[in-house]
Amino acid sequence: MVAASIPVLVGPTAIGKTAVALALASHLSIEVISADSRQIYRRLDIGTAKPARRERHRVPHHGLDLVEPGERYSAGRFARDAAKWIEEIRDRGRLPAVVGGTGLYVRALVEGLFVEPPLDPERRVALEHWVEGLDAATLVRWAGRLDPGFAGGGRQRAARTVEIALLTGAPLSVWQARARGQGTIVPWYVRLTAPRPVLHHRIQVRADEMVRRGLIEEVAAVLSEGHTPDAPGLDGVGIREAVEYLHGRRTRDSVAGAIATSSRQYAKRQETWFRHQIKTPALVLDAARPSDELAQQIANQWKAARASP
Question: Are residues 64 and 156 in the same domain?
Answer without folding.
Answer: no
